[in-house]
Amino acid sequence: MVRKTKEEAENTRKELIEAARRVFHQCGVSRSTLEKIAKEAGVTRGAVYWHFKDKAELFSAMREDVFFPMVERTDSFLLSENYENPLDAIEASLKEFFRVLDDCSVVREVFEIMISRCEYVDEFASVQEEIGRPAQEFLRKMETVYQRAADKGMLREGLDPLETARDTWAFTSGMLHLLLGCQKNRGLDQQISLMISTHMKLRRRG
């Protein structure tokens, strides 16, 4: 048997990740099997095990495939020093996150899978911990930016940077769950930009 080239192997891996996303989104993670994913990708089950040890590892790869680029993109706004007011950086970052979510169906599908199509039990308990770590990093980054705004006298008087960051973190998480969960397809996506602007306005001095 001719050994696959590195490029062919990488292409197969990408096809498996894309197939997993489609199957997870259609069937739900618990009802998805590696056999279904292999069939969707047009490969054998053995090919799946060549790249991933189990369904949880494939799920993590699918998440990372869109999650890390998203973090880099939003961080380019959140951590930018091009904004005179650090609160503008937070607002731009949040709006960019939801803009990408609206524009890119692949990103949206992955977040829908994580929020409403996966039970984080058994082998997926550790996956939930993986998902939680970037959220904690996001919280720490926002605290830093809110502290920068406070140091510049631009944060509303009496607001603590950490508590304000936690509030924005909860606000963002809540909007995400409403948008992709119980309020899906109810026009919420058309109100998000204004909601973010209002949320940030309440944190601005003056």
How many distinct domains? 2
Name of the CATH homologous superfamily of the largest domain: Tetracycline Repressor, domain 2
Backbone structural class: mainly alpha
Q: In the CATH hierarchy, what is the class of the largest domain?
A: Mainly Alpha
Q: What gap, in angstroms, lies between the N and C termini?
A: 72 Å
What's the order of the H and E elements? Answer: HHHHHHHHH
Architecture of the largest domain in CATH?
A: Orthogonal Bundle
Proportion of residues in extended strands: under 5%
Q: Provide the gyration radius in Å.
A: 20 Å
* Major sheet size, sense and barrel closure: none
Averaged pLDDT: 91
Total beta strand runs: 0
What is the helix fraction of residues, given as a range? over 70%
